[in-house]
């Protein structure tokens, strides 16, 4: 008898530990549904790969934002150098030291771009190609402006002494508009293209650009 009683007690204890037995307000034993064990299954290989891909994409997005910020800084520096080159080309008064300084700044900018290009190798081609094209466009623009400044300096050295003054000693200031050539501008003011080139230390008539200001001698 005691054996059966002990067995029943152990069975009830086992059920209670499994969450199958409770007691109501009147002390009655109520059998319930066994509690389920928490799902402790390991993530699948596919889930692990997806998690890794998401982490990689987030890393790439952060890298692209950082490089874009660095490129903005390089762009600002390039604009500064370009403005100096424009001023030298317009005034024709740059010295050899000025040209050397411009070239040193260009070399520094090229080093910055090279460093960023190395970082781009870690980025997929779709991102890297876009940023590299942006770099090339910026460098091509500043190279063209520096060449114009160097040409202006060389022309200024060849024409030693003060430049020839116009007959009246007065000049018009003309701002080059889109589509205008030096010959068209000279005809508008009734002067020769050679006079305009000499007064502005222009060696190559094709190097004038939109927005450039020219001194036109008054005849």
Description of the structure:
With 219 residues, this protein is mainly alpha-helical. Among the domains are: 59-158; 171-217, Roll (Membrane-bound Lytic Murein Transglycosylase D, Chain A), CATH 3.10.350.10. 63% of the residues lie in helices and 7% in strands. It contains 6 helices and 4 strands. The strands form 2 sheets. It has a two-stranded antiparallel ribbon with strand order 1-2. The chain starts with a helix and ends with a strand. Residues 157-166 have low confidence and may be disordered.
- Report the principal-axis shape: elongated
Largest sheet: spatial strand order: 1-2
Largest sheet: 2 strands, antiparallel
**Annotation, overall tally of beta strands:** 4
Low-confidence stretches: 157-166
> What is the string of helix and strand elements?
HEEHHHEHHE
User: Structural class from helices and strands?
Assistant: mainly alpha
Radius of gyration (Å)? 40 Å
Strand content: 5-15%
Mean pLDDT rating: 68
Distance between the termini: 136 Å
Helix content: 55-70%
Number of helices: 6
Short synopsis of the structure:
The chain has 6 helices and 4 strands; from the N terminus they run H-E-E-H-H-H-E-H-H-E. By secondary structure, it is mainly alpha-helical. The strands form 2 sheets. Strands 1-2 form a two-stranded antiparallel ribbon. A two-stranded antiparallel ribbon has the order 3-4.
